[in-house]
Amino acid sequence: MPYPAKLTPDAIAAQARVLLEAGGADALNMRPLAEALGVRPSSLYRHYADRAALLTALTDDVARELQVTLEAAAQGMDPQAGLRAMAGAYHAYARAHPHLYALLLDPARPYTASPGPMKDLWNTVLEGVSAVTGRPDDTGATVAVWAFLHGHTLFFLGGQFGPSGDQGGFQRGLEALVRGLLAP
Fold first, then answer.
1. Which CATH code of 3.20.20.150, 1.10.10.10, 3.40.50.150, 1.10.10.60 fits the domain covering 1-48?
2. Which terminal Cβ of the chain has fewer Cβ within 10 Å, N or C?
3. In a structure prediction context, what are the per-residue pLDDT tens digits for the chain, which is 184 residues long?
4. Is 19 exposed, middle or buried (0-12, 13-18, 19+ CB in 10 A)?
5. Which pTM value belongs to this model?
6. Are 82 and 128 in contact (CB under 8 A)?
């Protein structure tokens, strides 16, 4: 197969995302990706050193996408309503894109506090929580919110609530959490 002039990192990432959303990270391999793009696998390595580099780029894209989603959900709202909207948007994003969401939680690429899309996503949640508590850089409260969102989301995605669903547990837990953030 010839090396197409239009093969770009963005084109590769877009097709990789299609494969990933269809079957998860295990479905994303360089050979099927190359086939889907109509190129030789070696052509991909001109843009990404290996599969891990491609997954890292996709993870960064997902973190940026989720950050924009959360910011848009809370825009123009008072802090409490904004945090509720962010929480709902977080949960909705994970439900709509479970395989992309899973990239953010991959233990093979542990979270670091270094600058970048994951840190920016964290800072968006931190700012939303801190606006509610009135305490700048309220890391403890942000960890509590993030743990609630993550835990409920994983239970939901894993089918742990069974056929009856969570019976309003997400909203009830979120309300309790927001009220708790307001406590002195």
1. 1.10.10.60
2. C
3. 555 557 999 999 999 999 999 999 888 999 999 999 999 999 999 999 999 999 999 999 999 999 999 999 999 999 999 999 999 999 999 999 999 999 998 776 655 667 899 999 999 999 999 999 999 999 999 999 999 999 999 999 999 999 988 999 999 999 999 999 988 7
4. middle
5. 0.90
6. yes
